[in-house]
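Q: Can I see a sequence and its folded structure?
A: Here is a first one.
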Amino acid sequence: MLEESILPSIVAPANACDAHFHVFGPKGAYPYHGQLRYEPPHAPLQDYLKLAKTLGISRYVFVQPSAYGRDNRCMLDAMRQMPRDICRGIVDLEDSTPDAVLDNMHALGVRGLRINVSPIHQEQEGLMESMVPRIQLWEARCLERGWHLDFLLPGWLTHRMIPVLDALRVDHSLAHMGMFLARLGPDQPGFKNMLALAARGQGRTWIKWTGTYRMATLPQMEDAAAMARATLAAAPERIIWGSDYPHLSFADKVGSIQLFNLMHEWAPSAQDKQRILVENPAKLFGFSR
């Protein structure tokens, strides 16, 4: 990892939130799901909290990593070690999960359900349509609890999904700026339509400044700046930031401090950072203001 090579370029405001990171147990402690594209690292909570202290982060949103499929035990075990008032989680669950299990997770701090399609999934006719019944099922279950839906989709699928998102009655977040490739610029139709959706005024669409290295050009990721600034211009009250720690197969190319510093470059004003790091995640995840 590159975390030791640079320092944060800013001091985070009080109550700053990392809205998207993962933890991994030692190999064999929790079973992996399916065929993996990468070897998950051992990334325990204690290591992440050291990084968070360096960044000035004091609120935390755990996200279930795809490597564990719908077995959320590693994440939930880590959440149990944290104070409830500063800790939230986003899970991935079987559709048949009983209400009592959801209620127990809610008490622990879970506030979202992840809808996850590999960011490198190639265009596939009918995929979006096949996903709609599950989205609608979880929309109803999230609506009952004040949860939101968290989407990780390839850009082409985000674009096709916009009418479905527009009809949702619950908040929904789009990881990695919708996974639209930064080299195609902010004028690409899918990205513009996503920004229009976020800006329309219903207040349900949230854009996550996460996983920049997945949609931008390494090593400097300079082409992401135009995308981020277009997002900021369109919907400043609908942006949240997350480190996407521990970066998995990209860990030898990027670090969380580097990504934190990019956020500062994209949103240099204190007002914008207060929104992105404090006010916006407080609203979406239900932290005290």
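Q: Show me another, different protein.
A: A second, unrelated one:
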Amino acid sequence: MHQAFVELLERNADHAETFDSRFDDVQDAQRPDAVTVCCSDSRVLQDHVWDNDRPGHIFTCGNIGNRVVQRTADGDVVSGDVLYPIAHTGTDLVVVMGHTGCGAVTATYDALTDGLSEPPGIEHCLDLLKPHLEAGVEALPEDLGRDEAINRLVEYNVDRQVQFLVASEQVTDDVTVVGVVYDFQDVYGGQRGEVHVINVDGERDVDRLRAAHPDVESRIRRRWEY
């Protein structure tokens, strides 16, 4: 057996011993407080970001580019992964979490600017991002360095995913949608691993966000106010 998998099983044994009694209240049903849409990048520890160790607390969705869009024969709709807890478990908070240095955003940027292509499965994911990022790429200042361009587009992508949710008839008005960026590259000036709020229900003006949400004022910041 692959040694990495053996080590995973060993860690799972520790997990099972620690969590044995924590499933008592959620064995038959779940009512998570939030659904998070995270990039599946291995550096983003999706539940651990929130210091979560409580089963049933967070409904976690992961994919490259933290996308909320699913393509169907009838057009683009809110992904069933995201919609399920909203429709069936009473969850009324969605958190869309991008991260600094996102590879999916980088690949989409390269595809839009240089025409680079990826294997079909990856290309399908990028095709879901391209329509949402194209205007952002065009709006970037010409003299911007590549790393800064990518991190601005990370915010732009989160904004677009939030806007898609807010505009969707499938997501009711009582659902709060928050857009954040997870920083492990010293981009936002806080500690590595901090989450920074950049968008709430489509509002992305920092001053208005801070005035409206003073309880998280210190965590509201953006790289790009366009």
